[in-house]
Design goal:
By secondary structure, the chain is an alpha/beta fold. It folds into three domains: about 160 residues, Roll (Luciferase, domain 3); about 280 residues, ANL, N-terminal domain (Rossmann fold, 3-Layer(aba) Sandwich), CATH 3.40.50; about 120 residues, GMP Synthetase, Chain A, domain 3 (2-Layer Sandwich), CATH 3.30.300.30. The protein is built from 19 helices and 31 strands. Helix 3 packs antiparallel against helix 4 and helix 4 crosses helix 5. It starts with about 25 loop residues before the first helix and ends in a 7-residue tail after the last helix. It holds the Pfam family ACAS_N. It is an enzyme of class 6 (ligase). This is Acetyl-coenzyme A synthetase.
């Protein structure tokens, strides 16, 4: 089991002040609750469930499962037999039973600091019911899938909750994805409608979402509900950036009356009342796509009851939620972090959150600190990549703002390097705020390894210990469990309520990806080290995935985008360390005969990847590779390419390499800095 760290200098005191009021006040309390959650999960989760409204109670055990492929189908069931509604539990329950109707649910802060509004719980409920009625009018029924391609505006939250109210399954696609990615996701989950906006500003840049949506829909004609982004109708005269007023171009919105429906028009015509659909505990709640190592994104499916319980409890304990908190998670709702820790977890706790549309450096590099001061943010959750980006600008931008409201800091998306951890703890948190470094995945639904702010002694860079109900172990290549200090595959022995239930429409892929390698265990795909004090440290991915700025990208998907270019015969993509993004993409391309490698081609290839996948997947380096290092059986040796990208001359054992000369040629042509 986990032990307290005793070595001096390694750990930082964890308590952020009022430890006695914390939900988990100290480490022995954590251990006691943890033991109960593993040994008596039914008793433990039943208590958590008692906070919520169930139309019908569960009939059998709270958690039932099989993790062993040799014994039959993999399944997880939570609260089997119960019926409930997610939207009712996060909105109606707070408004009607807890009298929180006048509490602010979201402070929306737009791309420009001039655009902001407060939305109370009762206003949120009214808008969600209206949107639910609109969806029903458009023919959406329980079980139907709804694609949502919206920026970080209140309508995104209204739409996702409206889906959950009527039992529709939302599939949110990050508004930075290309039309090809959007189309692929709409087709895979057979969505019956798409909700999008006319456009959005990211910093200074205008993105015409409706046009991208139309390109996607050419391949799959669906009804389209369009939100007008109000900020696009406003001429911005923010003099702090630029002495002449900036007039952003107003979006030219393409329109097809046969398919397109205007949000403002239809929302005004429907009632603010909508009865919730009572759903089975294991009915689907949403599908969210995550990169897969075969290159085709996987539709991760989460279900109603388990996801509600798990996001509720993780939010409550990891951020030690108190009634006077103002919480801000800087993620986009297009990712799992936004689903779990902007929408569902905070609302289930009756929390007040900031919903932020902007970027950290617009209109100035102090924007995050300005927002923290503006709303008196107490709990702040962001990604290591954002911290490293803001570190570059030093302490000056922070010193203009009052950050004394902060009580807890959190990080998500990738392991945080100790240098960034110390800057975050010392400069942003002024050494007063514990840092909760949370490890989890789209698939886990919520935090699985994490410190608890008043209870866990911290070590910079470690995700520390498992959350309640999570039973980790480390295996070697042969599937043997490793005791004590060890490094190997991070796996989990049993489910927690928030774990994914399947890959949408592809149970076989679900079982093969997560359960086949080591029967009896959920395999995370991450490697991990446990130190002598029992702390867990995530050390990287085991499969062909790369973590760029906290987003998992599939090397196979990027390689296939590159090889679709007429000049490219073969491509291989590896990671290289990057001071801001953590890892960046370094690509090797072998050209077809008589094609010339030049900077024009490099630009074309970068554009190609952006169009196929989206800007987040844009390569940083593209190197000409007359040939790639391969084994005699023709397998590309990615390890060697990784070392070339990093300029590591000591390549170790190359005996399996078919043609060793390839390596010297590649070293002679590598890029030291990005082109």
């Amino acid at each position: 089991g986990p032990w307290l760290s005793t070595r001096r200098g390694q750990d930082v005191s964890s308590s952020g002040g009022s430890a006695e009021d914390a939900h988990v006040p100290d480490f022995s309390c954590y251990l006691e609750l943890y033991k109960k959650s593993i040994e008596e999960p039914d008793v433990f989760w039943k208590e958590v469930a008692s906070d919520f409204y169930w139309k019908k109670p569960p009939t059998g055990q709270i958690l039932q499962y099989n993790f062993d492929v040799t014994k039959g189908n993999i399944y997880v069931k939570c609260m089997e037999g119960a019926t409930t509604n997610m939207c009712y539990n996060v909105l109606d329950r707070n408004v009607k039973d807890k009298n929180l109707g006048e509490r602010v649910a979201f402070y929306w802060e737009g791309n420009s600091p001039d655009h902001h509004m407060a939305i109370t719980y009762s206003q949120l409920l009214g808008q969600v019911c209206r949107c639910a009625n609109v969806l029903k009018q458009m023919g959406v029924r329980k079980g139907d899938r709804v694609a949502i391609y919206l920026p970080m505006i209140p309508e995104l939250v209204y739409t996702m909750l409206a889906c959950t109210r009527i039992g529709a399954v939302h599939s949110i696609v990050f508004a930075g994805f290309s039309s090809e990615s959007l189309c692929e996701r709409i087709l895979d989950s057979q969505c019956s409608i798409l909700v999008t906006a006319d456009g959005v500003h990211r910093g200074e840049k205008l993105i015409n979402l409706k046009q991208i949506a139309d390109e996607a829909l050419e391949k799959c004609k669906e009804k389209c509900l369009v939100v007008k982004h109000h900020a696009l109708r406003i001429q911005s005269g923010d003099s702090s950036v630029n002495l002449t007023p900036v007039v952003f171009p107003v979006v030219q919105t393409p329109w097809d009356a046969a398919f397109d429906v205007c949000w403002e028009e239809v929302m005004g015509q429907v009632s603010e009342q909508c009865e919730p659909e009572w759903l089975d505990a294991e009915d689907p709640l949403f599908i969210l796509y995550t990169s897969g190592s075969t290159g085709k994104p996987k539709g991760v499916l989460h279900t109603v009851a388990g996801y509600l319980l798990y996001t509720f409890l993780t939010f409550k304990c990891v951020f030690d939620h108190q009634p006077d908190d103002v919480y801000w998670c800087t993620a986009d709702i297009g990712w799992i972090t936004g689903h779990s820790y902007i929408t569902y977890g905070p609302l289930a706790n009756g929390a007040t959150s900031v919903l932020f549309e902007g970027i950290p450096v617009h209109p100035h590099v102090g924007r995050f600190w300005e927002v923290i001061e503006k709303y008196r943010v107490t709990k702040f959750y962001t990604a290591p990549t954002a911290i490293r980006l803001l570190m570059k600008y030093g302490k000056e931008p922070l010193q203009k703002y009052d950050l004394s409201s902060l009580r807890i800091l959190g990080t998500v998306g990738e392991p945080i390097n100790p240098e960034a951890w110390h800057w975050y703890y010392e400069v942003v948190g002024q050494k007063r705020c514990p840092v909760v470094d949370t490890f989890w995945q789209t698939e886990t639904g919520g935090h699985v390894l994490t410190p608890l702010p008043a209870a866990t002694p911290l070590k910079p860079g470690s995700a520390t210990f498992p959350f309640f109900g999570v039973d980790p172990t480390i295996l070697n290549e042969h599937g043997e469990e490793l005791e004590g200090e060890a490094e190997g595959y991070l796996v989990f022995r049993q489910p927690w309520p928030g774990i994914m239930r399947t890959v949408y429409g592809n149970q076989e892929r679900f079982e093969n990806t997560y359960f086949k390698k080591f029967p009896g265990f959920y395999v995370t795909g991450d490697s991990c080290r446990r130190d002598r004090d029992g702390y867990y440290w995530i050390t990287g991915r085991i499969d062909d995935m790369i973590n760029v700025s906290g987003h998992l990208l599939s090397t196979a998907e990027i390689e296939s985008a590159l090889t679709e270019h007429g000049a490219v015969a073969e491509a291989a993509v590896v990671s290289r360390p990057h001071t801001v993004k953590g890892e960046c993409l370094y690509c090797f391309v072998t050209l077809k005969d008589c094609r010339e490698f030049n900077l024009t081609l490099v630009d074309e290839l970068k554009r190609q990847v952006r169009e196929k996948i989206g800007p987040i997947a844009t390569p940083d380096f593209i190197q000409n590779a007359p040939a790639l290092p391969k084994t005699r059986s023709g397998k590309i040796m990615r390890r060697v390419l990784r070392q070339i990208a990093r300029n590591e001359k000591d390549l170790g054992d190359l005996s399996t390499l078919a043609d060793p000369k390839v390596v010297e040629v590649l070293f002679s042509q590598r890029w030291e800095t990005a082109a």
